[in-house]
Amino acid sequence: MKITVDEAKCCAAGQCVLIAPEVFDQRDEDGIVLLLDAEPAEEQHAAVREAAAVCPTAAIHLSGTA
Amino acid sequence: MNPPSSVLIAGASAAGLGTAESLRRKGYRGKITVLGAEPHAPYDRPPLSKQVLAGAWEPERARLRPRDALDALDAAFLLGDPAVALDAAARTVRTATGARPRTLPGQDGLAGGSVHTLRSLDDAAALRADLLTATRAVAVGDGVLGAEIAATARTMGVDVTLAGPQPAPMAAQFGPRVAELLAAVHAEQGVTLRLGTAACGLTGHGGRVSGVRLADGEVLPADVAVIAVGATPETGWLTGSGLTLDNGVVCDAYCRAADGIYAVGDVARWHHTGIGALLRLENRTNAVEQAAAVAGNILGEEKPYTPVPYFWTDQFDAKIHVHGQPSPDAEVAVVEGAVEDRRFVAQYRRRGRITGVLGWNIPKQTRLTARGCLAGHAGLPTPGTAPRGPALVALRASPSYRWEVPPALSSRGLRATAPDAAR
User: Where does the record locate the signal sequence feature (chain A) (predicted)?
Assistant: First the structure.
């Protein structure tokens, strides 16, 4: 799994941080998403998929089948 | 409980897509069919009043998922052909509509004459085209959608007036202190505020709008008017279906309208057990969170849906995030930052209890504050904020569009008994 984030789409809701805090964080100054781990270990994949699905601006893209 | 052999989803926006995605994520392998009223692939609505209207994004950028992600979902999308009826008793479905923005008297007679509502991608394109040549625009509606449209139109260089009955934009959501700050931002940026008087109609000339008439008799001149005075849940197509329809599709705590039939998004009015009342939320995040809850309940999880409401709005340089319910009569305490710096977190307290947290240009800290003081209960949410999601009803269906709705369908037993605090 490879993650990319679209900072220009991000609205700083922070839903991804709630769901997958090992993978996502927010910048202190404006809340925009910070990708901590672009290729997370398999145990994170389910949470990352959920984070991508609930992101309210569809700013998280996943590629790769793993 | 065995999962249904197939699921039909009426509505192809955030809630509809979200339900399909959640079903797959939870391991559902049956047939999924998604009906959409519009011809477009699933797209997001919040950018319509901002990036898409401003022209900063091509409409394509508002798409919720790339083509390969939709293909991987293995769902049949039937787009451009809205559902028109659900006949639970006869187990048949005919296919008509989405949610409907409210309008002003006389608006229909000026259709095509530069009077707009904004809900769909096509609406946004039409409004943008008119704003590009507008001399003077009036945004009617002092809620989130009207305020966002006024801000976007102003950033396009349009001379714009924001009209509405409240003393300041979004006063019902934010309370006077924060709403006055929002009014100040609009005024500084050159929006003319004509607040405190409701609009009651339109004036026209030669089939085109010429002004917006206010209740006190004044007419605001306009060559473009956009009406953002809320939306009505689109349940007309469900009349006679056997479902309980009352300001939305009335559901139990599991978002179930009847056995095998669920409602999600703007149209769903469900029993929130955390506050003991029927609620309907028109927020973007509710669409996907409720979709996930319904997907789980379709698959037998049987979990009540009890979210903390959340929405955000971007107007000029103000990025405002709201968790829970900052009701207008609450006591407001700034707990981080400062109002004069236009970067602060405010807690809203009502009857001794924190009901909402609002952040102005400080989203991360706002979320952390909300998590600390709103977890475990949701403040009373705001009915009637801007429309975001689609109407959606999911039900068990055979592949041939003959609905396997149990004959014992009864909506009467689903009425929540709690007092309705959402009204």
Answer: none
- Domain boundary pick from B186, B211, B231: B231
Q: Check CB contact of A30 with chain B, cutoff 8 Å.
A: yes
- Judge whether residue A16 has pLDDT over 60: yes
Residue B147 in domain: yes
Say if the Cβ atoms of B314 and A58 lie within 8 Å. Answer: no
Residues of chain A found within 8 Å of residue B367, distances taken between Cβ atoms: 13-14, 17-18, 26, 31
pLDDT of residue B87: 62
Q: Are B142 and B163 in contact (CB under 8 A)?
A: yes
Same domain, B269 and B282: yes
Encoded amino acid at B241, one letter:
S
Whole-number pLDDT of residue B99: 61
Beta carbons of B285 and A53 less than 8 Å apart? no
Q: Do B106 and B94 lie in a common domain?
A: no
> Do B80 and B201 fall within a single domain?
no
Residue B409 exposed, middle or buried by CB count within 10 Å (0-12, 13-18, 19+): middle
User: Which CATH number is B70's domain given?
Assistant: 3.50.50.60
Residues B140 and B223 in one domain: yes
B40 has a pLDDT exceeding 60:
yes
Domain spanning A2-63, CATH class = alpha beta
For A49, the closest chain B residue by CA position comes to B25
With an 8 Å Cβ cutoff, is A15 touching chain B?
Answer: yes
Sign of CA dihedral B397, B401, B404, B407: positive
Confidence of residue B260 (pLDDT cuts 50, 70, 90): confident
The verdict on a CB contact (< 8 Å) between B312 and A54 is no
The complex's ipTM?
A: 0.94
CB–CB of B271/B251 below 8 Å?
yes
Measured CB to CB, residues of chain B less than 8 Å from chain A are 18, 21-22, 25, 44, 46-47, 61, 63-66, 284-285, 288-289, 292, 310, 312, 314, 319, 321, 361-367, 371
Residue of B nearest to A56 (CA): B285
Q: Are residues B16 and B150 in the same domain?
A: no
CB pair distance less than 8 Å for B284 and A50: no
A50 to chain B: which residues are within 8 Å by CB? 25, 292
Does residue B314 fall inside a structural domain? no
Pull the structure tokens for residue A15. 């839903």
CA distance B104 to B102: 7
d(CA B104, CA B109): 10
- Total structural domains within chain B: 3
Beta bridge partners of B359: B321, B345
Nearest CA in chain A to B293: A54
Domain that holds residue B356: 326-374
In a domain, B49, yes or no: yes
A64 touches chain B (CB under 8 A): no
Pair B359, B368: CB distance under 8 Å: no
